[in-house]
Every structure is written in structure tokens, then in C-alpha cells.
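Per-record layout

source: Microthlaspi erraticum
name: Plastid lipid-associated protein/fibrillin conserved domain-containing protein
length: 202
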Amino acid sequence: MALALSAYPPLKLRRSFRTTCSIFPAQRAKQKLLELISDQDRGLRTQKDAAKREAIVNAIESMADIGRSSITTGESLSATWRLMWTTEKEQLFIIEKAGLFGTRAGDVLQVIDVKRGKLNNVITFPPDGVFFVRSDIDIASPQRVNFRFNSAVLRGRNWEIPLPPFGQGWFETVYMDGDMRVAKDIRGDYLIVDRAPFNWKE
């Protein structure tokens, strides 16, 4: 009898084992996704590679399956998020064509404050330039956020040009953990961002 009982790990160890194993699929899917986007220059190269895009989107859908029951619109959504990869053509166009204006695109950010209901989409042009769009947001569901643009600003070292607001929509954060977020939006575009090691402020 003693031998039979000793064949089973202690209850605490069994629970720990189950918890650890449940994390493995998310870790594997996340690692695969990060590997797929690692050489894609934030999505610029993906535009010309349909097979790569399909592979990345499939990996994103796998992440969405893992995160299906999670709530991703709570206070943990509030952060300065930094672009890793996207299919959003407007952002990619600005990143790609910045050199035509004698500059380059730096960090591309999404700055979210759930409590205040604010969102800034930001493209930086080091050392002093920045283009950002201000939005109001409201939580529509456990994973969906509605947004409405209310103003935009193009700013340099000693100048600023205000621009009119232009549109509204929604995005869904289909997966989020302590350092990465994956989203898709009303237009069918995808976004992968990580938590920036800094807080961007106007």
C-alpha cells in the first residue's frame, strides 16, 4: 500500500504541475508569434510577403483562442504600448516614407488610459518631432474598446500644427499578458505591441 501511494506526487505538486502545463500552450504560441515577426520591420516586409502575413495572422488567431475568455479592457490595459508589428497601412506608410521628409520614424506608440477614457496614437520622429492623434475611448465588452478621434497634432521643436479629428471605430485586445498585447480592429487590421519601458506624455 505504501508503494502504491508513493507512485503519486503530493497534491500540492500535482496542482502546480497542472497550472504549469496550462501555461505552456500560451508560451509556445507567443514564442512562435515573436519569431515570425522578428525580421518583419514592424510589418513593412510583411506587406510584400503574403505567405508570411498568413502565417502571422494564423499565429495571432491561435493567441486569440488562448485569450478568448480573458478580460483585457481593465486597468492593466493602461500603458504606453510600443509597436512591434502591424498590418495598418497608414502607420506603415508613415514609417516607410519618413525619410522623404529628411527624418526617420522612431517609436510608434499607443498610449492608453482606461480610467480617464483616453487614447493617443503616436509616431515619433527623433530627436524632436512627433505626430499624435488624441481619442476618447469607452469600454464596450471584456475585450472591445470603442474610440473616437477628437484631434491630431504634428509637432516639431518650436512649432505645432493642429489637425482636425477624423473618424471612430473599435479594437479588440484578443490577448494580453504582462509584456505583450495583440489586437485586431474594425477594419480587420492586426496590431502587436509590447509594454514600453517608459511612459509617453504630451
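summary: The beta strands are 79-86, 108-113, 118-125, 129-139, 144-155, 160-163, 168-176, 180-185, 190-195. The domain at 10-195 is CATH 2.40.128.280 (Lipocalin).
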